Amino acid sequence: MKLKVLPPTLRKNNRYLTLDIKCDSIITKDDLVNIIWDACIRFQGECNTSNFNLWVMKFYEIEKTEEYVHYKSIVRCQRDFCDDVRSSLALAAKYNGHDISLTTIGLSGTIKASQKFI
């Protein structure tokens, strides 16, 4: 039996956050996933974070300087929890003893529109 696709009216509404990431060491996409989940769980708790529907869609390295490495990323979350995710990410300051800065530079309803911020 073939699975049926949910109609658009029953699907979850997603929003896409464009993040500006500066770190004093090299990180990978898996490290970014850990940073985001850790920040959200510490600030919001496990029950709220499970509702966020977080997913790292794209991850780009922009530039590498002597002081820091600059990345940009697109993260998906559920529409009702955008503000909670943004506040959690703003509080992330360290990862494995290295300084990190996560800033939200854009919020949009599609991946294509969020790529304009990169």
Key phrases:
globular; alpha+beta; 4 helices; five-stranded antiparallel β-sheet; 118 residues; Alpha-Beta Plaits; 5 strands
Concise account of the structure shown:
The chain is of the alpha+beta class and 118 residues long. Helix content is 28%, strand content 36%.
> How many individual β-strands?
5
Helix count? Answer: 4
**Molecular shape:** globular
Q: Provide the residue-averaged pLDDT.
A: 93
* Main sheet strand line-up: 2-3-1-5-4
Distance between the termini: 42 Å
Radius of gyration using CA atoms only: 15 Å
- Can you tell me the CATH class? Alpha Beta
Fraction of helical residues = 25-40%
- CATH homology-level superfamily: Ribonuclease P, Pop5 subunit
Layout of SSEs?
Layout: E1 14-23, H1 29-44, H2 46-49, E2 55-64, E3 69-78, H3 82-90, E4 94-95, E5 98-108, H4 111-114
Helix pairs in contact: 1-3
Structural overview:
The protein has 118 residues and is an alpha+beta fold. It has one domain: Ribonuclease P, Pop5 subunit (Alpha-Beta Plaits), CATH 3.30.70. It contains four helices and five strands; from the N terminus they run βααββαββα. It has a five-stranded antiparallel beta sheet with strand order 2-3-1-5-4. A hairpin with a 2-residue loop joins strand 4 and strand 5. Helix 1 packs across helix 3. The longest helix has 16 residues. It starts with 13 loop residues before the first strand and ends with a helix. The mean pLDDT is 93.
